[in-house]
């Protein structure tokens, strides 16, 4: 008898949400790769209208993960968050002298995927932290390069030989 493998990622999909995909992306980019609890705090405090729809989807994805995978919500991380354009609803608004003006209302499809990080191999993560070479696959951060000093710390911008005010001519006039 074969043992069933638990799914690695759980999704929540919201389709035909009446907002522009561009406006939803500016919120989605802030939560991608963060923990579940941190994501809920961010979405509650951001002042955008898209936050409410995304909040409901994150909450739904976490409920799916706790029900289907049996995972704890404190171990969840937002592993996938994407926004695609949906259909555009086209209407006509009446204008003066019997004319009409087209109105386009964009929609979008939002997909939120959560992953339980307690199911990953813990020995692999411990070894990676010891080497300082751990690359976070959810947020696209390489921790080895983030520990390096910035390249502009060793540049010298002193003006020892050049005195701006004693150039002669221009500043000496009364």
UniProtKB/TrEMBL annotation:
Gene for this chain: rpl22
Any idea what job this protein has?
The globular domain of the protein is located near the polypeptide exit tunnel on the outside of the subunit, while an extended beta-hairpin is found that lines the wall of the exit tunnel in the center of the 70S ribosome.
- What quaternary arrangement does the UniProt entry report? Part of the 50S ribosomal subunit.
GO CC, sorted alphabetically, is:
chloroplast; large ribosomal subunit
| Single GO molecular function | structural constituent of ribosome
Q: Which organism is it from?
A: Androsace erecta
> Its family?
Belongs to the universal ribosomal protein uL22 family.
- Is Plastid a UniProt keyword of this protein? yes
> What NCBIfam families does the entry give?
rplV_bact (TIGR01044)
Ordered alphabetically, the record's keywords are: Chloroplast, Plastid, Ribonucleoprotein, Ribosomal protein, RNA-binding, rRNA-binding
Q: What name goes with this protein?
A: Large ribosomal subunit protein uL22c
GO annotation, biological process:
translation
What domain of life? Eukaryota
């Amino acid at each position: 008898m074969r043992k069933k493998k638990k799914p690695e990622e759980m999704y929540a999909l919201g389709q035909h949400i009446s907002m522009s995909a561009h406006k939803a992306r500016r919120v989605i980019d802030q939560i991608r790769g963060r923990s579940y609890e941190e994501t809920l705090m961010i979405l509650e405090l951001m002042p955008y209208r898209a936050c409410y729809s995304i909040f409901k989807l994150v909450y739904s994805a976490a409920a799916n993960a706790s029900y289907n995978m049996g995972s704890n919500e404190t171990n969840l991380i937002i592993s996938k968050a994407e926004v695609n354009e949906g259909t555009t609803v086209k209407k006509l608004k009446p204008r003066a002298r019997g004319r009409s003006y087209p109105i386009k209302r964009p929609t979008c499809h939002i997909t939120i995927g959560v992953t339980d990080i307690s199911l990953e191999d813990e020995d692999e993560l411990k070894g990676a932290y010891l080497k300082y070479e751990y690359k976070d696959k959810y947020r696209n951060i390489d921790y080895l390069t983030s520990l390096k000093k910035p390249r502009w710390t060793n540049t010298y911008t002193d003006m020892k030989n050049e005195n701006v005010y004693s150039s002669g001519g221009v500043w000496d006039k009364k």
